[in-house]
Amino acid sequence: MGKRVALVLAGCGVFDGSEIHEASAALVHLSRGGAEVKIFAPNIEQRDVVNHLKGSPAEEKRNVLVESARLARGNIQNLAELKASEFDAVIFPGGFGVAKNLCSWAVDGKNCTVNEHVNSTLQAFHSAKKPIGLCCISPVLAAKVFPGCEVTVGQDKNIDGRFPDAETASAIAELGCKHICKNVNESHVDKANKIVTTCAFMCKAPLHEIFDGIGTMVQEVLKLA
C-alpha cells in the first residue's frame, strides 16, 4: 500500500501562488513513488494578485483555495480539514504564494507570521514524527516554526549569478536554524526533525535539474514515511 501524502498549495502561479512546475514535479514524483495524494490549500484571500504577463500588480481579489483548485484539477480540500493522523507525510511546493499567503515572509522576512492552519499542520506532522517536505522558498516555514532545524534553499552566496536570493540563507541562520548549502539537483535531510528540503527555483537552472532535485526530496520523504 502506497504512502499517504498531503500536498499543500498556496494558489496558482509563481508570483502570487504556488510555482506550477514545482507542484507538478512533486505530483509526478509522488505518483511514480506509488503515493496516495490529497491536495489542500487555505481558504483565504491572496495577499495580492499579479499579472504574470506583465509582472505587475492586478486590481482584483482571488482566493487561495479557489486558485489552488486549478492545479488540483478541482480535487482539493480546505487546509483546515487536514488531519495529520490520516497521512504519512506532508509536502509544500514553493512559489511566492508561500511567502505571501502561507506566511508573511515576502513583507516581513524573518519576522514573519505563519498562517494558523499552516502552522498547526506543520506542528501536527512534526509532533507525530512524520516527514515534512519543502522546496524553493517553503523551507522558511520550517525555519520559522522549528528553531534549530536544518534546511536548504540552495547556496548562501550568489555563485555565478545562479542564486539571486542567497540572502535567504542568512535570514534562516538568524532564526537559529542551520542552512546547508546544496546544489539544485540535491536535497537535504534533517533526520532529527524529519524535514527534507530542496532549493528548486531558488536556483537559476535548467528545468530538468529542478525536476530532479524535487525528485530527490520526494524520494527522501517517502523513505522517512
Keywords:
single chain; 225 residues; GAL3A protein
Give an overview in words.
By secondary structure, this protein is an alpha/beta fold. The chain has one domain (4-224): Rossmann fold (3-Layer(aba) Sandwich). The protein has helices spanning 20-32, 64-71, 96-102, 105-108, 116-127, 139-145, 167-174, 207-224, and strands spanning 4-8, 36-41, 50-51, 56-57, 77-78, 89-92, 132-135, 150-151, 178-179, 188-190, 195-198. The chain has a seven-stranded mixed sheet with strand order 5-2-1-6-7-11-10. Helix 1 packs across helix 8 (207-224). The longest helix is centred in the C-terminal third of the chain and has 18 residues, at 207-224. The two termini are 12 Å apart. The relative contact order is 0.17.
Cα distance spanning the termini: 12 Å
Number of strands: 11
Roughly what fraction of the amino acids lie in strands?
A: 15-25%
The level of helicity is 25-40%
The total domain count is 1
- The CATH architecture comes to 3-Layer(aba) Sandwich
Shape: globular
Secondary-structure-based class equals alpha/beta
Strand arrangement across the biggest beta sheet: 5-2-1-6-7-11-10
The biggest sheet amounts to: 7 strands, mixed
User: Which runs of at least 5 residues are low in confidence (pLDDT < 50)?
Assistant: none
**How much is the average pLDDT?**
98
